[in-house]
Amino acid sequence: MGNDKDLKKKKKRSRSNEKSVELVVVANEAKQIQQQQQQQEKVIANEENQKPKQQQGNPNPKKKKKSQESYPFGNYKNYYGYRISNDMDEDPRLKVLNKEWFQGKDCLDIGCNSGIMTIHIANKFGCRSILGVDIDSSRVGDAQWHLRNFVRKQNHTKAGEKKSSGSKEESISLSNGEANTGSSGETKDLFQIVSFQKENFVHTRNLDDNRYDTILCLSVTKWIHLNWGDDGLITLFSKIWRLLNPGGIFIMEPQPWKSYEKNRRVSETTAMHHRTIVLRPEHFQEILLDKIGFRTVEDLTSSLSGVSKGFDRQILAFKK
Ligand SMILES: C[S@@+](CC[C@H](N)C(=O)[O-])C[C@H]1O[C@@H](n2cnc3c(N)ncnc32)[C@H](O)[C@@H]1O
C-alpha cells in the first residue's frame, strides 16, 4: 500500500518535471503572475508606508531597527553590510568577473538591491552603460543615493590628487584610469553610465525594446523562484535570453536549494511555491543550455575566494 503511494508520488513528480521544463508554461503564467504581482506590490507598498522617511534613499547602517521587518523578495536593507566585511577591499565576486564582458558594453543588473555591486562593476570595468533594476523602490532609492555618494567621494579624491600634483584640469571621470571611451573616444562620468529603475523583472514590459551585451542575476533566482514558482523562473530565463545580444553573456549566482528552506515562510506565496517547486537549482544549468538555448557555460566558482560565511555560491557565465 505504502509502496503504491510512493510510486504514485514518484510518477506524479516525474510527470510534472517533464511538464515544467517545457517552455509552454510561459504562456500560462501571465494571469497567475498578475495576481501575485498585485499581492506582492501591496506588501511592498505597506512596507514603504511603515518606513521612517529618512531611511528611504539614505541608508544609515548604524541605526538599529527595533521592529522586525520582513523582506519577501530578498530586498534586504544593508545587504552589503553582510556580504562585504570591513577587511575586504571589494566584493570578492568582482575578482572572478571578466573585464571583457563589461568594458564598453551595455549591461543589465537584475535585482540590484542598493546598487553597490552595479556601481563597482561600472567603475572597475568601464561599462558603456549599466542599468540596475529592483522590485523594491526603497532599494532603488538607496542605489541612487549610493551612486551620488560614490561619485562625490571619487570627485573629492581626484580633486585632492590634482591639487597635490598641481594640475589645473577640472574634469573628473572614472577612477582606475578605466574611464569609458565609446567609439567617439569621449569620456563619461558614472552618472552617464549607471542608472537604476524600479521594475519587477518577471512582470515588466518596460525593457522589451532594450538589448544588452551582459546581464547579471546575482543571488536573485531563489527570490523569483519562491515568489513566482517554476513558471516565474522560466520567465526570468526566457526574458534574459530575449534581452541579450547574440554572443551576449548571462552571469548567474543561484542560491542552492538548501537555502530556500530558511526563507520559505516569508509569505504565504513563498510557502506555497516552496511546496510545489519542481525545478531545482542543480537543474538550472541544464535548462539554460538545453531548453533556453545558451551555447556554453563557464563555471567561475573555483576562482572565487574570501567570501563571507554563507555566501560561497556557484557563479556561472553563459554565452548566448
Ligand atoms: C539578495 S539581493 C541580491 C542583490 C545583488 N544582486 C547582489 O547579489 O549583490 C536580491 C535582490 O533581488 C531583488 N528582486 C527580487 N525579485 C525581483 C524581481 N522580480 N524583479 C527585480 N528585482 C527583484 C530584491 O529586491 C533584492 O534587492
Instruction: State the share of residues found in helices, binned by percent.
Output: 40-55%
CATH topology group: Rossmann fold
What distance separates the N and C termini?
Answer: 49 Å
User: Could you name the CATH homologous superfamily?
Assistant: Vaccinia Virus protein VP39
**Looking at the structure, what is the overall shape?**
globular
User: Please, what is the average pLDDT?
Assistant: 82
Count of discrete domains = 1
Q: Strand-and-helix sequence, N→C?
A: HHHEHEHHEEHEHHHEE
- The helix-and-strand class reads alpha/beta
Low-confidence stretches: 14-21, 23-34, 43-59, 167-179
Number of helical regions: 10
Question: How many whole angstroms does the radius of gyration measure?
Answer: 21 Å
Biggest sheet character = 7 strands, mixed
Give the bound compounds.
S-adenosylmethionine
Tally of strands:
7
Q: Approximately how much beta-strand content do the residues carry?
A: 5-15%
